[in-house]
Every structure is written in structure tokens, then in C-alpha cells.
Amino acid sequence: MNYLLLLACTPCTDPGGRAQFNRNLRGFPTLPHDCVLYPPRDHGQALTQRRVPVANHLIRWFMISDSLMSNIGFVVAGLVLLIWGADRFVHGAAAAARNLGIAPLLIGLTVVAFATSAPEILVAVVAALQGEPDLAFGNAIGSNIVNIGLVLGFTAIIRPIPLESDTLRREMPALLAVSLLTVSLFLDTFLSRIDGVVMLAGLIIVMFWLVRLGIRSAENDPIKMDYEAEIPTDVGTKAAVIWLLVGLGSLLLGADWLVDGSVGIAQKLGVSEIVIGVTIVAFGTSVPELAVSLTSALRREYGLAIGNIVGSNIFNLLAVIGVAATIQPAALAPTVLSLHIFVMVAFTLVLFAMTHDYDGKAKLTRLEGCALLIAYLAYQSYVITQNI
């Protein structure tokens, strides 16, 4: 049956047709309860029409759709700038550090790890300054879940990742300790400035520890050779500084657009910033890690493939949450404690178990990669179906 989009004041003599018509238009947004759309019995039949209310609701619906599309556009543009800016920022920072005479392993453990977390850090700064710390918290927790479940899971499926670096084996317990520290600070359901300062102090301690770890590492450590192969040697200091600044500028603009668009989407869909943070924003800000890990695994630079994730996850928790809590203390959403933080810790524990050296042949296999990826997809599906 064909229907006309109009409101009729004449009674409908076909209740079944009217009910079917109304069911077909159940998704039509926010029509008032006293406005019922009727199927005309005859297109030529004269009907008294209430056109103005329908027109008003049509206009409102299109305005909402346009607003949602513009917010999605800001998110996409922001992610593109973040991804490109992160690549340029890492390139410039690593080249500048190498030109200053810093050892490649130290650059990889500190400068590169910090730079690959730059999108999350700047999103946290912008979100906290705009009074949206939940977006920053969700981004940090969600990024760690994405890094382990999606990035390492997908990478291991493409190519299994052996864990041959002693340096990396020492980093794994540090990641687990940082994750447990985060949980302990979350237990009172409020992140204060003191909590933020504690996490930033922990970041400084971890940085010093990583420097000492790099200095004491053996010359033949595989991860050291991986970093030496990847850090650029043909970039002058001036060019490196320019790329660093260009990357930083792109990151700042991209973070601003991403936060604005994400908050707008959350408001239009009626979901919390936490949900947007652990889904859309977390995935977008983890794309650089996905690119680095996948490329490194294909080049058989396995230490870099997994070391990139471990370092990034440590910085995500200490730097991202620490900065956000210091700028804007906030109460935590109930789902943070009841779901998201424990999912993150579970992924971290599973990764620790999978990469533990039980028999001298620690390796992240394809089967384990499949398990990580399936768990990540199940988690994301649950979050989306429960909130959208």
C-alpha cells in the first residue's frame, strides 16, 4: 500500500491498515502522541490536513541528521589529522633525538613510546580543558584494550610474534603493575588531582627505569636492532624539528576536532562520553600503533611489534589519565568500574600469560591472536548493543 505523508483529521475506517502504517513509521523521530499518520483510502479523496506540525517535525529531523553528520565529519577529519600528525611527530622526535646522540634503544623505549601515545595525551588535554574528562578516561582505557585485543591480535594472526627480547620481558611486569595501580586509584570512584599527580609521578619513575633498562640491555638484544633499523638516520636536525612541530600542530587541531565531534555524537545519540571514548575515539587513536605493529611484524622486527604496544599502554595509563585528572578531577561513571577497567586488566593479564617464557620459547601464536581479536570484538559488540 502507498501512503501519503500527511495528517488526517477524518477518521480512518481501516484500523488494521492504520496500525500497520504506524508500525512502519515507528522509527520516525519525535512525532507528538496526538499526531497519527493515516493511510488515505483513495489518493483522490479530499482530506483535511494538518501540514504544519508534520513539516515542523520533518525540518527538526533533518536538522538533527545534518548536525549528526557534521559531528561525524569532525571526528573523521580529526582522526585523519591525528594519524598523520602522530606519524610526523614520531618521525621528527626520533630523528631529532638520534641527531642529539641518544642511543636508538633509549629513543625507542622513551621518545617513541611517548610520541605514539601523543594522540591519546592531546585528546585527554583537550577533553579535560573542555570539561569532558570522561572522554579522556574512556580513551585511555579503551586504547589499551584496542592495542592488545585488536592490534596484537590481528598482528599475531598475520604473523606470529616471538618474544625474544630480555628488555621486553622486563617491561611486561611493569605494564601489569601500572594497570593494578590504576585500578587501585579507581576504587573510590573519584579521580582527584592528587591521584593525577601520583600517576604523573609514576610516569617519571617509569621513564627513569626505562632509561636504566636501556643502558643495561645487552648489545645483541633483538629489540635494540629493531629500533636501530627503524629510527631515521638521513634527516637533519632542522628538518626533524620542523616535522616535530608540524606533527604537534596537526595533533592539537585533530584532537580538538575529535573531541568536539565525539561530544556532539554522544549528545545526539544520548550515550555517555565514556562509551564514545572506549569505542570510536579509542580505535581512532590506536591506528598509529596498529600501523607500527603490523609493519614491524611483516619486516620480522618482532620486538618493535610488541614493544610498541607495551610502551604505549604504560604511557596511556600514566600520562593520559594523569593529565586528565590533574586538569579536571571527576567522578567515574559506574560502568568504568563495573566493566571497562576490569576488561582492560583482563586483557593485560592474558597478554602477560601468553608472552610468559615457560619453556624458553615465548611466542604469541595465531591461535592466541584469534582469541584476543574475538574477545575484543565481543567486548565492543556488548558495549555498542547495551548503549546504542
Number of strands: 4
Largest sheet: 2 strands, antiparallel
Low-confidence stretches: 1-15, 17-52
Query: Strand content of the residues, in percent?
Result: under 5%
Structure annotation, total helices: 14
Measured as a percent range, the helix fraction is over 70%
CATH topology of the largest domain: A middle domain of Talin 1
Specify Rg, calculated over alpha carbons: 26 Å
Mean of the pLDDT scores? 81
Q: How do the strands line up in the largest sheet? A: 1-4
Number of domains: 2
* Quaternary assembly: single chain
CATH superfamily of the largest domain: NCX, central ion-binding region
- CATH architect. name of the largest domain: Up-down Bundle
Shape: globular
Structure class: mainly alpha
In the CATH hierarchy, what is the class of the largest domain? Mainly Alpha
Distance from first to last alpha carbon: 32 Å
